Amino acid sequence: MSKLFICAVAELTIVKKEAEWKKTSPLKVVGLFRGRVRRLQEEILRLKERENAFILAHNYQVPEIQEVADAVGDSLELARIAQKKRGPDVIVFSAVDFMAETAAILNPDREVYVPDPTARCPMALMCPREVVSEAKRVHNGVPVVLYINTLAEAKAEADVVCTSANAPTIVEKVGAERVLFGPDKNLGLYVEKITGVRVIPVPEDGYCYVHTMFEPRHIARLRRRHPDAVVMVHPECTLEVQRGADFVGSTSQMYRYAKDSKHEKFIVGTEVGLVDRMRREIEGKTFIPALSRAVCKNMKKNTLEKIRRVLLEKPPENLVMVPEDVANKAKRSIERMLELSEKGK
Ligand code: SF4
Q1: Which of 173, 207, 241 is where one domain is finished?
Q2: Residues 6, 109: one domain?
Q3: 224 C-alpha vs ligand 1 centroid, how far in Å?
Q4: With a 6 A CB cut-off, is 199 part of the ligand 1 pocket?
């Protein structure tokens, strides 16, 4: 319940005001809040049906958004679902900019909307097209592998895209001794360690501000408190943090690992939204956030109210537009990833 409060402060403020006005008890405030969320969710489900829409939500979305989504997952899962899904005219992509762009590129015949156009990924913004083209000029002929957490304009400059789930596989399948890799330097170091392929970071020091919040001391402290727990961290964490973990993987890999594992307790080193999802969906196991303040405020800009507004009004400023020439080039690098990640499975 506390997560609902944390993740919807604006919503709670409205409800608190309603409660003050009605002079209700704190318990009634909780009831009002739950009731308000439920009413919004029901309205969204009705609108979704009416508008023939499909809602995709990233693992880092707040629980109440995950609950109304048709699919919840990481970048690759959602990219595949968006490409394969037949039927809906409208996709509402509740995540950050680059993910919605990917869905728009793979679904040119559909309208893709975002709940909040200002929900952008700061790491993707560290790697504009010019940075990639300059690196290509300096390292002429070296293949470019870009993390899916990049804007379409950067993807258009890449030979292939990857996700945190398949980055080592994709780099290995590219078959070169060196690759230009960006924008996350830590993921690049992880890939280099696994594959032995030399990674040239593009830009020099791209990072995710959420995953670089984790420090080895956070993991060590929790290990002392929960000696029976398995520690899982995301490869966007620093190599020092990765070294202190029992398992390093993407959000989908962590989810599957925890679900299939015989272990019952897990310390989770990624954005707290994944902890919410695992607590809700994996019964009988305990999930402890490695750092409860590891919240991506960009992802959390999306709310149920904004999703409702998009379904009701389809505001032009929320429609994802990628110029055709950029989309065609970016699509080639995304499809190359999908081909390579299927190949030899
Ligand atoms: S968690 Fe990091 S990589 Fe993901 S959207 Fe937020 S800032 Fe970007």
Answers
A1: 207
A2: yes
A3: 29
A4: no
The atom of ligand 1 lying closest to the CA of 124 is 8
pLDDT digits (tens, 9 = 90+) for 23-57: 556 666 667 677 889 999 999 999 999 999 999 99
- Can you give the CATH number for the domain in which 30 is found? 3.40.50.10800
| Protein residue with its CA nearest to atom 2 in ligand 1 | 208
- Closest ligand 1 atom to residue 298 Cα is 6
Structural domain count, the chain: 3
Query: Can you give the pTM of this predicted structure?
Result: 0.87
The secondary structure of 136-170, three-state, reads HHHCCCCCEEEECCCCHHHHCCCCEEECCCCHHHH
Contacts 24+ apart (CB under 8 A), 281-289: 282/255, 282/258, 285/258, 286/229, 287/258, 288/222, 288/226, 288/229
- Return the residue whose CA atom lies nearest to atom 5 of ligand 1: 121
Report the amino acid identity of residue 206. G
Domain that holds residue 140: 122-207
Give residue 26 CA to ligand 1 midpoint distance, Å.
34
184 within 8 A of 208, measured Cβ to Cβ: yes
Cβ–ligand 1 contact at 296 (below 6 Å): yes
Write out pLDDT tens, residues 266-321.
999 999 999 999 999 999 999 999 999 999 999 999 999 999 999 999 999 999 99
DSSP 106-128: H-TTSEEE-S-TT---HHHHTS-
Write the burial class of residue 5 (CB in 10 Å: 0-12 exposed, 13-18 middle, 19+ buried).
middle
